[in-house]
From TrEMBL:
It comes from the Eukaryota. Pfam families: BTB (PF00651), USP7_ICP0_bdg (PF12436). GO terms for molecular function: catalytic activity, acting on a protein. Residues 263-333 form the BTB domain. This is BTB domain-containing protein. The keyword Repeat applies. Keywords: Kelch repeat, Repeat, Ubl conjugation pathway. Pathway: Protein modification; protein ubiquitination. PANTHER family: KELCH PROTEIN (PTHR24412), KELCH-LIKE PROTEIN 28 (PTHR24412:SF441).
Amino acid sequence: MAAVDPPMLAVITEEGIKQSVGKTHAVELFESLDQVPRAHFPQATTEAVQQYAKTQLGTTPGSESWHLLLQHQNGTHRPGQRLSSQELAEMLQVNPPGTVLLVLLMNKVPAAEGDMLLFFKFYEPYSFTYTYIDCDFYPPTTRLVDLHPHMCALASLPRHSPLFSYQEERTDALDELDGQATLASWLQDTTDIICFCTVHHCVQECTPVGFFLLGPFKARAKPANYSQPLSFKNVVPVMGGPSEFSKEKHRLWTTTADNPRLWNLQIELDDGIRVHSSRAELAAYSGYFRTLFTSPESFSETEAAVVRLKELSGPAVRAIIEALYSHKITIDDSNAADVLKACDRLEIPVVKDACCCGTTVPRLQRNWQMCRGVLLDAGGAFGTCSG
């Protein structure tokens, strides 16, 4: 029997993860492991590998976590599913060509066999950067919502801030996940891993804060709560240019579309623009229109063919209503303020969140802070304000 060459061994510590963490691909842990030390170890046995790690790397028993190193189609790298002792032994015996084993030297160890290692990345929307902030082992029975308090603490958010989780469906799209789903519910196939992205939309400050959970999950082709793709740009702002938004229909649509009183409507704005719509669509997305069309106190508006809106931009309202049908809207410096104002007035959070997640509003915020500083300086010079 021909001798089997030992696979390459790539070694990375938590400090190495911090230095190599993906900074442009949000759902990747590593962008490049070219600088990570690699070596051949002498014998293809589990004991030899563990002895090598102990003598050459100074690790303590149980502190290392063994994975296959996988390269994604976008060129970045991920640790594959954590290998058990038996799987590691089998891999050492078979050793397919080009195999690279990744050993992660973590500060934490699993409390029980089968615990899953999760990595946490933090997204800073103003500097467009990602940083590695934590990792830990969790039981497979852990629900996504069970992780939220810890993630809020990592980002100095209130403990019960609302967070929304997504799964990478392809390199440019995410699927929204059920927060009650457990990590174990995604275990099915060993050919790939699933990357989770959890986002907090802080509407008041127009600041999205993202936590990216990357763990050695086994992929599932189409989970039970699979939804239509959510545009990546609605989750992670892209530097420069207008923000584009795309989202599946709101769930309230299914509860309002069968009400005949909610159809056939024109909206008239102060500037003479008229926008055709339906009561069903508006009531599905807009709290303002839902109350207007269904409240007994507003019977005249409920039956009217034309609804007049004052002090709102016609083009902004048209863009918002068209987005409710097409599920796409482009937001830039020229219309962001008008769109935000209209979304606030009409209570349409799904479009407002898209506006807040784009690059336009953060730029406007920074511009406002600069202008505010200039005004305060000028006021101080003329003795009209104290700061």
